[in-house]
Specification:
- The protein is mainly beta.
- It contains no helices and eight strands.
- The protein is globular and about 45 Å long.
């Protein structure tokens, strides 16, 4: 639903996509204009002390992504791109709370 989606467009730097406990669906496209091992776009999970890369792109072209992630208290999902040759475009929506209870889209039911 329109009111439940949070769109993102990351072309340089790091953006926090979610930081509240629960299940999130993240979908979109990674557009990569130049390939280099030192230049990349990625999604990371962090608990404030440790960072874990869950997806990383460094190939020329476009790659679709669509995944679900669960965040515990104190964890966050971030998206980053090293420069403007990379863009991560998509949306994220909470689909369930931290105990697995469904979070209905905005406006549902009618």
């Amino acid at each position: 639903a329109f009111g439940s989606q949070t769109a993102f467009d990351v072309t340089t730097g790091t953006t926090t996509l979610a930081n509240s406990p629960g299940f999130y669906r993240c979908a979109g496209i990674a557009n990569i204009g130049a390939s280099s091992t030192s230049q990349q776009s990625k999604f990371e999970l962090t608990d404030g002390a440790t960072v874990k890369v869950i997806f990383q792109f460094s190939l020329t072209g476009a790659i679709n992504f669509d995944f679900v992630v669960w965040l515990a208290t104190g964890e966050s999902l971030t998206c980053s791109a090293t420069n403007n040759n990379f863009s991560m475009n998509g949306s994220i929506r909470q689909i369930a709370d931290s105990e697995g209870n469904l979070v209905n889209p905005s406006g549902f039911p009618l």
